[in-house]
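Hello,

Our lab assistant flagged a job as stuck in the queue for most of the afternoon. It eventually completed. Since we weren't sure the result was trustworthy after the delay, we are filing this so someone can double-check. Below is the sequence as submitted and the structure that was eventually returned. Let us know if re-running is recommended.
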Amino acid sequence: MQLRFTPEEEAFREDIRNTLRQAVPEEVRQRNAAGTLNYPDDIIATTRALNECGLAVTHWPTEWGGKDWTAVQHHIFGEEMALNFIPDFLPFNAGMVGPVIAHFGTPEQKEKFLPATANLDIWWCQGFSEPEAGSDLAALKTRAVRDGDEYVINGQKTWTTLGQFADWIFCLVRTDPDVKKQAGISFVLFPMDTPGVELRPIETIDGGHEVNEVFFNDVRIPVANLVGAENQGWTIAKFLLGNERSGIARVGWTKTKLAEAKRLAAATPAASGGTLLDDPLFAARLAGLENDLLALEVTQLRVVASSAGGKPNPASSLLKLRGSQLQQDALELLSDLAGPESLRTDGPVPQYLNYRKVSIYGGSSEVQRQIIDKAVLGL
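-- returned structure --
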């Protein structure tokens, strides 16, 4: 199987590659390749540099900075971002709340939030998961009670990624407890420094501080910060998660890890002579991953091309499911190659441990299989 692009598409790729390399300093790209980015500074600087080039929110509506590109051009752009070690855009801004506000927001909300979101003048975080509402997100209990022109919010969110840097949070809250659980949810926005908001760090298995718990104690926010209609939050959440799952495949990122595995294998002597790259068992394992990744790339192009009118294709769950598996497989291969070196704190094991999460966030693999069963296969 081969994936070929037209001469025009290859010219587009070359232009994008040159623009990315000129806009983002080499030292930032080197830090990203080494896994030593400076947070939040490198993410903010990269986003603002690419926003000046018109490349920060290419998939948004064109009136808010998006590009009128084909599905293949969007794919090429994402791949070149990864292959050139450009730091990822903050997903909560570019891939989640931005498209939601552009699609469901009022004109006032669009004017207020979209330019600032694109330029990372606002750092957003996500308030979805709760201690008893992770994969079953509709079971959330955080309550928002209407009091005149305000909502009063009480409850808890967990696994709030990078919340320690966030200026605002977009949050799912229960506004009607007396209806079917999916039907009583709303989508609201508010600053993280609102009185009554408390953030506590969660230390992850790799020793890092990436996620947090967030508590709400009589948090008052304007009703004007409701996105869409009251109790429309479940529809908005499905829209947001569909966009998120398409991006979680991260084909370009996995390509860089397999390329790194090839370099390590070529420098590692094999017991039978030659290098690991010459070992038939290792070569078969690597070739299998490369073929699986190519199949995922072709599937991603098909899914993106078939999504129209801002409505994500339910087949994005296929990308999320298989993409997360291949990311984990690639890191497992790197850890096996590194041997004792994998025990270093800056070695592949911390990243391997961190990436166990990718088969959970954005909807666990079990949830994706249920979506594929019902919405894709119709079983």
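-- support follow-up --
The delay was a queue issue, not a problem with the job. The result is valid. The chain is about 45% helix and 15% strand. Strands lie at 124-127, 143-147, 150-157, 168-174, 185-191, 197-203, 209-222, 226-227.
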